[in-house]
Amino acid sequence: MWLKETTQGERKTLFAAFVGYGVDAFDYMIYTFMIPTFILVWGMTKAEAGYIATGALISSALGGWLAGILADKYGRVRILQLTVLWFSLFTFLSGFTQSPEQLFVTRMLQGLGFGGEWSVGSVLIAEMIRARHRGKAVGLVQSSWAVGWGLSAIAFWAVYALVEQETAWRVLFWLGVLPALFILYIRRNIAEPEVYRATQERLARTGQSNSFMLIFKPGVLRTTVLASLLATGMQGAYYSVTTWLPTYLKMERNLSVLNTSGYLMVLIAGSFAGYLTSAWLSDRLGRRRCFMLFAICAAILVICYTKLPITDAVMLVLGFPLGFFLSGIFSGMGAYLTELYPSHIRGSGQGFCYNFGRAVGSVFPAVIGHMGATMSLGAAIGYMAAGAYGLVVIACLVLPETQGRELLDEGEVEADARAEAVH
Q: Are 87 and 80 in contact, with CB atoms under 8 Å apart?
C-alpha cells in the first residue's frame, strides 16, 4: 500500500488533516438535517433556509480565499489551526440562536473558518507527498468529508431520538465544538512542508514578492479563470444536492427521520467509496479524465434520483452510486490546483479558485429555494445540478493535464507559461 512509503511525519500530517476536514464536514452538514425542524419550529420558509446555506457558503469562500493568502505568508500549519478554532466556536454559538436572522449571522461567521480548512489543508498535504501519490493522499483527506457527513447523520438520528426537536437542534450545534481541542492537540508538532520552507528562504534572499495579485498576471490568469469555473461547476452541483436532499426526502418523499437517515447513510457510504476510488483513478487516468467521467455519471444519476417516478426501494439503491460520483469528483481537485500553481502563490491560487467556485456555487441552494415555490423541489435540484456538471466538462476540455507533475519553482512555471502562450 502506498501509505507504507510515507514517513511518520507525513502520516501524522495526513491523520491531522483527515480529522480536521471530517469535523469541518460535520459542522457544515449538520445544518442541512435541521432545515425541516426550523421550518416547523420557527416557521422559516424554504427561501430563508436557502439564504442561510448560501450565506455560510459565501463567507466560507471569503474565508478560504483569505486563509490561502495568509498561508502563503505565515505558514500552512499555523493558519490551519486558526481555522479549526474559528469554525468550532461559531458552530457552538449557533446553538444559542433564537431566530433565522441570528442563525444567518452565526453560520456566516462559522463559514469563514470552514472555508479556510480545505484551502490550507489540501495545500499542506499536496506539498508534503511525492507526485505519484499526491492524488491518493489528497483524496484520502477529502474522503473524511464523507466520514464527518456520516457522523452528522448518526448524531442527528441519535439526538432526535433522545431529545425533543425544539432542543435537539441546539444540542447538535453544541456537539460541533468538542473535536476542536483534539485537532489542536494532534497538530501541535506538525512541521511546514520542505517546499514551502525553501520557497520562503528564496523569497527572503531575492526580495521577490508572493503577492496574491500574481495569480492574475499574464501566463497565470488563464489558469486562474478556468480553474475557478471548474470549481464552480463541481460545487454548484454538490451544494444543490446535499443542501436540499434531506428536505426533499422528508417533505416530498414523505420519509420519517429514521428513514431519511437510512437513505442518507447509503448516499454517504457511496461518497466515501467514491472519494477513495477517484483518488486512485486521478493518479492513474489523469485529473481531467477523472473529473469528466465523474461529472457525466453524477449528472445522469441526479436526474434519475430527483425527476424519474422511481420507487423508494430504487431510490435507496441509486443512493450509493449517486454519492459515489457526487462526492468522488472532488478527490483530485486539491492535487490538481496544487500542481497548477508555483509554491510562492500556491495557497493564494488554490484558495481563490476553489473558493470562487464555492461563492458562485453557494448561490445554487438559494436559487433552488426560489424555484421550489413554482416547481417540485426535485425538479429544481435536477436542473441546477445538471447545468453545473456541464460547466465541469467544458472547463476540463480546455485546462492542461498535470498528472505526475513535480511541484515547480517560479522560474520553471514562467517558462511553462511562455511555452503554453506560444502554442
A: no
Please check whether residue 221 is in contact with residue 213, taking contact to mean a CB–CB distance below 8 angstroms.
no
Alpha-carbon dihedral angle through residues 244, 235, 196, 135, given to the nearest 10 degrees = 100
**What's at 4, amino acid-wise?**
K
* Pairwise CA distance, residues 67 & 358, whole Å: 14
Give the DSSP letter string of 78-131: HHHHHHHHHHHHHHHHHTT--SHHHHHHHHHHHHHHHHHHHHHHHHHHHHHS-H
Kind and range of the H or E run holding 394: helix 377-398
**Do residues 368 and 245 make contact, with C-beta atoms less than 8 angstroms apart?**
no
Q: Which three cell numbers stand for residue 138?
A: 489528497
Q: Cα dist. 404→125, 143, 230, 287 in Å? A: 15, 21, 20, 10
| 241-244, Cβ contacts within 8 angstroms, sequence gap of 24 or more | 241/302, 241/322, 241/326, 241/381, 241/385, 242/29, 242/32, 242/149, 242/326, 243/32, 243/50, 243/53, 243/365, 243/368, 244/32, 244/365, 244/368, 244/369, 244/372, 244/377, 244/380, 244/381
Radius of gyration, CA atoms only, the chain: 21
pTM for this model (two decimals): 0.73
Q: What percent of the chain has pLDDT over 90?
A: 22
Helices (H), 129-175: 131-162, 165-175
Cα gap 160→169, rounded to integer Å:
8
* pLDDT digit string, tens, across residues 330-376: 988 888 988 888 877 888 888 889 888 988 887 888 888 888 778 88
Angle, helices 131-162 vs 100-128, to 10°: value is: 150
For the purposes of burial, counting CB atoms within 10 Å of the CB of 204, is it exposed (0-12), middle (13-18) or buried (19 or more)?
Answer: exposed
Quote the Cα angle for 28-30-36, to 5°: 125
Q: Which three cell numbers stand for residue 116?
A: 479556510
pLDDT digits (tens, 9 = 90+) for 173-199: 988 777 666 666 666 677 777 777 777
Q: Is the dihedral of CA 323, 329, 77, 61 positive or negative?
A: negative
Write out pLDDT tens, residues 92-136: 999 999 999 999 999 999 888 888 877 787 788 878 777 777 778
In the chain, the domains with their CATH numbers are 2-422 (1.20.1250.20)
Phi/psi of residue 145, each to 5°?
-60, -45
